[in-house]
Write a structure and sequence with these properties.
With 397 residues, the chain is an alpha/beta fold. It has 14 helices and 16 strands. The protein has one domain: Rossmann fold (3-Layer(aba) Sandwich). Strands 6-3-2-9-12-15-1-16 form an eight-stranded mixed β-sheet, sandwiched between helices. Strands 4-5 form a two-stranded antiparallel sheet.
């Protein structure tokens, strides 16, 4: 299939035009970078607290079918599912296993020959070196989270690039990445896959403030790319957005879907205070920017009902600049050692009280052609009116 047919909703040529338009806004203050961009449909499914496993899986499938007609999927194609598996902790610290199971079942029903579920965990748990894996196992963590069994039961295979070593990656170029020294090191298996579906979760993050769809890209990267990301920390947020212009993602990523029936509203990514609202959401879009706008809005809504006692600097480190800088330097130490840690740039936190505060999303607006005109689709007409109104309000940035 041609590259133009491999992109998620727009041709490569049209995407390059969007980049050119968005480049004008780069490095400008927020108010000057708010140019209205392309339309984006945001599909929100509603799941009541206490719903059965079947009801949850049905909601995931309904949201996916609302967000895309799967016309991009031909019989016999291969699909790569990228979850969020920083640790082996259960959902919502990681992607919901039933969400993965539902997506694999749907893809198989639609004719996918091969579905691969893959990630590489965070440096606290797994470290890959040029000589091989130095510590940890993403496979073991996926088993612990429940994701592995769910994926296998639906007919998916599991793949972990660390098990093949340093050479299981290639340098993928960025369509827009001036804050990176070059491309990013991505798993070579992506070259043989026809499509990618991203399935993150909605969570706070002690270094980034939140971890949604764009931040999940870290799970693709080899250790050296992660080192650059954390060491050159003054542009940490901008590099997060820019990494999502890797050619593999632009050409093959079809859908971003988060099962957000629970939200981790403090600390993150591995632990924190968890909220299970009366009505949970399934957030789906073929636009990663629209998806992350909604996912952040949902995190903020649930954070507002989080007890203040859970938001102290010790229980929610992102609230302290000193803790953010110290923690990031510690990550660099684990990734590259003391010399790199000593040369690490300061990671500057910013209050994230609304979508417009988030530097990752701000940069995404700049490089993806402007602020998308988001239209909410109420999947199955199950979304409470007050919740839909609140989401619409938060998305008006």
């Amino acid at each position: 299939m041609k590259d133009e047919e491999r992109t998620k909703g727009i041709s490569r040529r049209d995407f390059e035009k969007l980049l050119a338009a968005g480049a004008v806004a780069a490095s400008l203050p927020w108010g000057e970078a708010r140019a209205e961009g392309p339309p984006a449909m945001l599909h929100l499914g509603a799941v009541k607290k206490g719903s059965s496993d079947k009801e949850l899986k049905d909601a995931v499938k309904e949201a996916a079918l609302s967000a895309t007609d799967f016309s991009w999927l031909s019989s016999g194609d291969s699909v790569f599912i990228k979850p969020a598996l920083n640790s082996g902790n259960p959902y919502p610290a990681t992607t919901h296993p039933l969400g993965i199971q539902a997506m694999v079942e749907l893809l198989k029903d639609k004719g996918a020959r091969r579905v691969v579920v893959s990630d590489m965990a965070g440096i606290e748990h797994v470290k890959l070196t040029e000589d091989g894996v130095k510590k940890g196992s993403t496979r073991d963590l996926m088993e612990k989270s429940g994701m592995a069994a769910a994926a296998r039961s639906a007919g998916a295979e599991l793949y972990f690039p660390e098990e093949e070593g340093w050479g299981a990656f290639f340098e993928d170029g960025l369509a827009k990445g001036p804050h990176w020294k070059g491309g990013v090191m991505m798993p070579s298996i992506l070259k043989e896959m026809d499509h990618i579906i991203l399935m993150p979760r909605t969570s706070r993050h002690l270094l980034a403030g939140s971890t949604l769809g764009m931040k999940a890209a870290v799970g693709y990267w080899r250790t050296d790319t992660r080192l650059e990301y954390h060491k050159d920390a003054s542009t940490f947020q901008e590099k997060t957005a820019e990494a999502n212009t890797a050619s593999s993602l632009l050409e093959k990523q079809r859908l971003v879907l988060t099962t957000a029936t629970r939200v981790q509203t403090t600390f993150g990514p591995d632990k924190g205070h968890q909220i299970e609202p009366d009505t949970g959401l399934i957030i789906a879009s073929d636009s990663i920017v629209a998806h992350d706008m909604a996912s952040l809005a949902w995190m903020l809504i649930n954070r507002e009902v989080t007890p203040d006692s859970r938001k102290s600097p010790t229980k929610d480190p992102y609230s302290s600049q000193a803790m953010v800088s110290t923690a990031n330097r510690g990550v660099v130490m684990m990734l590259g050692g003391a010399l790199h840690a000593a040369r690490t740039e300061k990671l500057v936190r910013n209050d994230i009280e609304s979508i417009k505060d988030d530097r990752v999303i701000k940069r995404a607006f700049q490089i993806f052609g402007g602020r998308p005109r988001v239209e909410i689709v109420d999947v199955g007409n199950k979304l409470p009116a007050d919740l839909k109104k609140e989401m619409e309000k938060r998305l008006e940035v």
